[in-house]
Amino acid sequence: MTTSSSPISVAIVEDDEACMDRFESAIQASSDLLLVGSFADGRSALTWLQGHQPDVLLCDLGLPDLPGLAVISYCAQRCPKTAVMVITLYEDEQHVVRSLEAGAAGYLLKDSLHGEICDRIRELHAGGSPITPNIARLVLKRFRPKVDKPAFSPVQGLTHLTPKELIVLTRIAQGFSYAEIGGLEGVSVNTVHTHIKHIYEKLSVRSRSEAVFEASQMGLLDIVPRRG
Q1: Which N-terminal stretch is annotated as signal sequence (predicted)?
Q2: Which of 127, 169, 188, 192 is most buried, taking the most CB atoms under 10 A from its CB?
């Protein structure tokens, strides 16, 4: 966390190179902002976040290996000094609401101008929740009291999972076998079984189908491309 005289430290998780360049350029051109990390996938970001807490984390939703929701939830729970802002092309209610429920405090569209990018980062760091007006209307509509509809929190189970367990759960949701997961992650099938056992315990489930159902409730199946 920075002091009032220190620049605001910012990390970015974004797989689109052109978008990454735009955001990096905007941050680096501002003397009160400091770029401390840039990551093109969720795995690298989670590994880095285990030892760092930037003031602000900008995170895309459509990452190549993990859903952005997993990174956002992990950061919100394990990095209390970090404020998270989504950077995305999605303007629909589902993505907005799930991002906020996962722990994001701001929602910024990727086509924002350089000046707006920096202003929103400053606003977020100051304790605000920068969200464009049209998206704010969606949020207000979604959270108006409803007598017959309970509150839905799709990412509750992500809180206690490790980065490796998040990756394995995502692979399960994508339809990969245990052997295929082992090959993709460079570990033995026994190690995959161990991760899955821990996932089952933490999610209070007893089967692959139940784990996949929980992944669906967390939003993993809506954002991560499914196999086939």
Answers
A1: none
A2: 169
Q: 174 to each of 163, 168, 200, 219, 226, how far by Cα in Å?
A: 17, 10, 17, 12, 5
Are 77 and 130 contained in the same domain?
Answer: yes
* Residues in the chain with pLDDT values less than 50: 147-154, 223-228
Hey, CA dihedral for 141, 145, 149, 150, is it positive or negative? positive
Confidence (pLDDT) at 205:
78
Distance from C-alpha of 89 to C-alpha of 176, rounded to nearest angstrom = 28
- The DSSP symbol for 227 reads P
Q: Which two tokens stand for residue 227?
A: 């196999």
Mean pLDDT of the chain: 83
| CATH value at residue 52 | 3.40.50.2300
Q: Are residues 121 and 201 in the same domain?
A: no
Q: Does residue 161 share a domain with residue 127?
A: no
228, part of any domain? no
Q: Is 131 helix (H, G, I), strand (E, B) or coil?
A: strand
